[in-house]
Design brief:
alpha/beta, about 300 residues, single chain, 11 helices, RibonucZ/Hydroxyglut_hydro, 15 strands, Metallo-beta-lactamase, Chain A
């Protein structure tokens, strides 16, 4: 396969790696912290593993050098490559929230659920999550600490709402906060912030609580898995919260009208598309199509509808 790498140094011995989900560029990012104990955050999909390996090799990290692999949550665009990467780097410990740990050790149930959602597209988009030896997995709960060496730490903070097994990760040396999907999707080409509310775990109040927790950590920078670094921390977290409220209000109105999912999606699109440069008239259709694969309106609406029905 094509393993050309796109690596961007971000300062503080942090390197952004384009993990190229399904061949798309600029959609899924992993991060290498090249500390005394090198740490890979977000390995991406199973299909991304050869790209990530090539990037680590380019950065001087060999098979025996990687100390830790950390995932913010076990959705396949973030953690689908864990089993492959664990095989390539046999000394690396895998860190994940306790509610996701068993799925990395025994991924059959997770893969069955994913195939029900994606069908044949699963193989193209994500590939197969391979099991990781349970002895190599370290589960964290509300908080946890990953030793990066030299007194540097990566501290994990449970941040559910997008997923019950989601954690944010704070670098003690740089003040970088790896936000996974808990703060939504950042689109660097347009500076849009869009929500990520897929079923089955989305919950508005829990998600807003996680954003408040992120703010209380006073990070210097947000590092999005989708996609890249953002310096405007407070404004971006505020925008993330606002977008969640807007989408939930729109879906609630659709639900109150007893609309089927496709009609609800159309109504929500009509209400929200003008909020984002990526979906306004005259926007780049290829860019919009790329992010629709990752963060489709149908998935967001379905997740919010599921949450509203659960609460009802």
């Amino acid at each position: 396969m094509d393993t050309r790498t796109t690596i961007r140094p971000l300062g503080g011995d942090v390197y952004e790696i384009d993990t190229r989900m399904a061949g798309y560029t600029g959609v899924t990012a992993g991060y290498l912290i090249l500390s005394d104990r090198p740490c890979l955050v977000e390995p991406g999909t199973a299909g991304s593993a050869p790209v990530v390996q090539a990037a680590l090799t380019e950065l001087g990290v060999g098979a025996a050098d990687l100390a830790t692999v950390v995932v913010t949550h076990i959705h396949l665009d973030h953690a689908g490559g864990v089993g492959d990467i664990a095989g390539m780097y046999p000394g690396a410990e895998v860190v994940v929230h306790e509610k996701g740990a068993r799925h990395l050790a025994a991924p059959e149930r997770l893969m069955r659920s994913a195939r029900m959602v994606y069908g044949d597209r699963l193989d193209t988009l994500f590939g197969e999550l391979k099991p990781t030896d349970a002895a190599r997995i370290r589960a964290v709960d509300d908080t946890g600490v990953i030793d990066l060496g030299g007194g540097r730490r990566l501290e994990s903070y449970h941040s559910p709402g997008h997923a019950k097994h989601h954690v944010g990760l704070m670098d003690s040396a740089t003040g970088d906060l790896y936000v996974g999907d808990a703060a939504g999707i950042y689109i660097p080409e347009t500076a849009d912030v869009r929500p990520a509310t897929p079923p089955p775990d989305f919950d508005l109040d829990t998600a807003l609580g996680s954003l408040r927790r992120f703010g209380s950590l006073q990070p210097q920078r947000l590092l999005f898995a989708h996609y890249g670094p953002v310096d405007e921390v407070t404004d971006t977290l505020d925008r993330s919260a606002e977008e969640l409220r807007v989408w939930v209000d729109a879906v609630r109105d659709a639900r109150d009208q007893d609309l089927e999912l496709d009609h609800a999606v159309a109504m929500v699109r009509d209400r929200t598309d003008e909020r984002y440069a990526i979906t306004r008239e005259g926007a780049d259709p290829e860019l919009a199509a790329k992010y629709e694969v990752l963060n489709g309106a149908e998935s967001n609406v379905a997740g919010i509808m599921h949450a509203l029905n659960r609460h009802a």
